[in-house]
Write a structure and sequence with these properties.
GO terms for molecular function: enzyme regulator activity; proton-transporting ATP synthase activity, rotational mechanism. It is found in: Plastid, Chloroplast thylakoid membrane. Keywords: ATP synthesis, CF(1), Hydrogen ion transport, Ion transport, Membrane, Transport. Pfam families: ATP-synt. Its main location: plastid. By secondary structure, the protein is an alpha/beta fold. It has a domain of about 240 residues: Pyruvate Kinase, Chain: A, domain 1. Helix content is about 50%, strand content about 15%. It contains six helices and seven strands, in the order H-H-E-H-E-H-E-H-E-E-E-E-H. The strands form two sheets. A five-stranded mixed beta sheet has the order 3-2-1-4-5, sandwiched between helices. Strands 6-7 form a two-stranded antiparallel sheet. The chain is elongated and about 120 Å long.
Amino acid sequence: MTHFLEPRFHQTPFPTLLRRIPKSPPPISIRCRGGGARDLQSRLHSINNTQKLTEAMKLVAAAKVRRAQEAVINSRPFAQSLAQFLHFITQQIQPHEIDFPFLIPAPVGKVALVVFTGDRGLCGGFNASVIKKADTRLAELKNLDLGHILISVGKKGNSHFRRRSDVQVDKYITSCGGGSVPTAKEAQTIADIVFSLFISEEVDKVELIYTKFVSLLNCEPVIETLLPLLGDREAMGDGGFRLTTKEGKLKVEREGKRGNLEEIPALLEFEQDPVQILDGMIALYLNSQILRALQESMASEVAARMNAMSNASENALELKNSVLVAYNRERQAKITGEILEIVAGAEALQGF
C-alpha cells in the first residue's frame, strides 16, 4: 500500500517573503460633486491650465538657471584668487605691527548678520531653509548673550523677521527677485553698509547667511565669516553642474574644476606699505564676496524653482490621469443608463 504524504503548511507559508512585498501607493480618490461629468470636465480644464502654467514657469526658470550658473562659475575663480592672495598678505605681516582694524582681533560683543533670501515664492524650500538657518544662528547668539544687527536681503526674509516680535530688521535691501543676474552695483550697496558698521565699531563681526549652489538638485545654506580677516578661506568649490540642451531635452553635465591656483611664492616682496595694499584690496574683497553670495543665492533660487515647477507638472499630470479615468467612468455610466432607457422604452412600445 502506498501512502501519499501531503505537505502541511502554516496559515502563512512564507511569512518572511510576504513581509518584503512593497505596498503600492493608494490611488488618488476622485469624488464627484452634484454636477457629475460636467464637474469632472471642469476640473480637467483647470488641471490642464495649471499644468501649462507650471511647464512655462519651469522653462523660464531653466533659462535663468543657465545664466545664473554662468555667473557663479565665472565669479568663483576671481573671488577665490582674491581671498587667497589677501590671506597670504595677512600671513606675512603681524597684526600688532600695523594699524589695520580689519585684522585686529577684538572681543565679540555684537554680530552683523546679512541674510540672503528671495523676493518671490514658488521655489520649494529655498527660502525656508535660509530662514531656518538664520533663526538658529539668532538663537545661538541669544544664548551667548551677544547682540546682533540684522540686514535682510530679499522680501521673503524681511516679511518673516517682521512678524517676529523678538527680532528687529535694522537694514532691508531688495534682492534681484529672480529677474536678472546680480551686479556689482547691488553688491556695493551691501558692502558699504557692512563696511560702515564694522569701521565705526558698531559690530565686531560680520557673517553672511546664504544658500550655496552645489548642483541643480542640491543647494546648501551656509554661514561664512566676512569680517574680520582671520583664518584661511575655504575653497569656493568646482564648476559644479551645467544645464545644457541636447536633442530638444534638458540635460545636466558635470564640469571639471575651474579656477585652480598656483602657490604664491613665499619670497614675494611688496614695494608699497602693507597698510596701503590692504586698504586698496579690502573694498574689492568685500564687493567680490558679497557679489558671489548674491550670485550663489540667485542660482540656488532659480534651480529650486525649476525643480518645484517640474514636480508640480508631474503631480498635475498624475492628477489629470486620475480625473480622466473618473470622467470616463462617469461618462460611460451615463451612456449605459441612456441605452438602458432606450431599450426599456422600445420593449414597452412592443406591447402596443
